[in-house]
Amino acid sequence: MTTILRLLGGRSEWLICLGVFAALLLVVLPLAFNGYFLNLLGRYLALAFVAIGLVMCWGYGGMLSLGQGVFFGLGGYAMAMFLKLEASTPEATAKQSTPGIPDFMDWNQLTALPWWWEPFNSFSFTLAALLLIPAAVAYVFGYALFKRRVSGVYFAIVTLSLAAAMSILIVGQQGYTGGANGITDFQTLLGWDITTDSARYVIYYICVFLLLVCIVLGQWILSSRAGRVLIAVRDEENRVRFSGYSVEDFKIFVFMVAAVFSAIGGAMFALQARFISPSQVGIGLSVELVVLCAVGGRFSLLGAAFGALLIKTAEMYLSDLFPQLWTILFGLILLVVVLAFPKGLAGLYELARDYALDHFGSNQSHAALEEHADKRSLHGREEGFLVRAKRILGGIR
């Protein structure tokens, strides 16, 4: 037991937690649930992509984005456009006034496929677009705001406005986007029937694999020089700027990474839900995603991902058990968690781990605990700036 406690307090802790989380997703859940429920869990995991992006730009960068649903929607719509075109062959749409175009376009009296839809006949173009377009939008948006030093609540309000504007735009362009109904009714991916139970299992595993890759990539970024500067920017932006670092470039970079993660989640959601609509782009989902990140732990990639899965699953069961009261019960649960554990579920884990190390660990375990406490201090404001600068900027070469 001493060995386990020493590992939990040392450098191997994150890898152990990652392994446990991977085992839960790859082994336990597929054995415990059938294809239908696994598909629902896969949709919840798609939201976890956005949550880990929020950890990077909000928890570490201090940028509260209330518009991550925009990037989630961009990825989802890119995937949905490809899937819809695959389902809209001339043979499948022979009864339409204009065969070969999506049904909602025919209903809105379009007579030809719009030029900007044409490239989405290619799966390779779709994959590139769902990564590059959100990154480009995040770059332009971030450059316009960060270069003008827009931050704090003003940044949150602007991103919230972006989500509202995008949702209104999609609803208003019904003939091109499907309007309020969104893009629906696709059954195949490259000729492969995605409605079967076996397909649901495969897509779920793909979603889990991509999520784990994004978590590892995000952890690598946060543990690198860029991550250390990002923490310093969050705590003392002006002093970091006076030290010669381009604060805006670091903010733009992490905002772009969060956007790409969100877009991947949107694509996986569209693939598993087999639809995408403005509700996945607008204000409601964007705010909900921030709540999921806060409850899971905005300083922990694994905590945010686990929190998204746990909270959405709890929401599903509560809505079935208490159809009239579940929103009130759910809100009370979230309120208690946020007030009692400011660092979310990840903070609850830290308390339990520290208690175990303090009461049952050896001297080596206590040393590991002190080392871990030093690392955790980077997430808070307990120390003065000079001490934090020595810890953070002193490690940058």
From TrEMBL:
Membrane topology annotation: Multi-pass membrane protein
CDD domains linked to this entry: TM_PBP1_LivM_like
Sample GO molecular function, one term: branched-chain amino acid transmembrane transporter activity
Superkingdom of origin: Bacteria
Family matches, as Pfam families: BPD_transp_2
Annotated TM spans: 12-32, 44-61, 123-146, 153-172, 202-222, 252-271, 283-309, 321-341
Main location: membrane
InterPro entries: ABC_transp_permease, ABC_transptr_urea_perm_UrtC, LivM-like
GO cellular component terms listed in the entry, alphabetical order: plasma membrane
Localization per Swiss-Prot or TrEMBL: Cell inner membrane
Keywords for the protein's UniProt record, in alphabetical order: Cell membrane, Membrane, Transmembrane, Transmembrane helix
Protein known as: Urea ABC transporter permease subunit UrtC
Organism expressing this protein natively: Halovibrio salipaludis
Gene responsible for this protein: urtC
